[in-house]
Amino acid sequence: MHWIAGFLIVAGLFFFAVGVLGILRFPDFYTRLHAAGKCDSLAAVLIIAGVALYNLTDYSFANLLVSLKIMAIAVFVFVASPTATHAITKAALVIGVEPWSRKDRDQ
């Protein structure tokens, strides 16, 4: 169980790092937000699931309840993070943030 939990946590850290690289390397607001939203959601769920599994190593009823609460947080993050990313993107579009295009790169 420790190995699986450790793998999930390390995989989550990897996706957080990839998201940071996307934020630093992509050219405009929308692509940066896409990288942040996708990687943040997946990484957070993986890390939270790893923590929940790690908590289950001591097989007691109290730890099972704590792990179920942690998984409920993971479900909330899985739903709330893409919704927030969509709302931020729509607000940027409404206020007039222009998407990047190739002609911007050539100028």
Automatic annotation (TrEMBL):
The chain crosses the membrane at residues 6-24. It holds the Pfam family PhaG_MnhG_YufB. One of its GO terms (molecular function) is sodium:proton antiporter activity. It comes from the Bacteria. Keywords: Membrane, Transmembrane, Transmembrane helix. NCBIfam families: CPA3_mnhG_phaG. This is Sodium:proton antiporter. It comes from Syntrophotalea acetylenivorans.
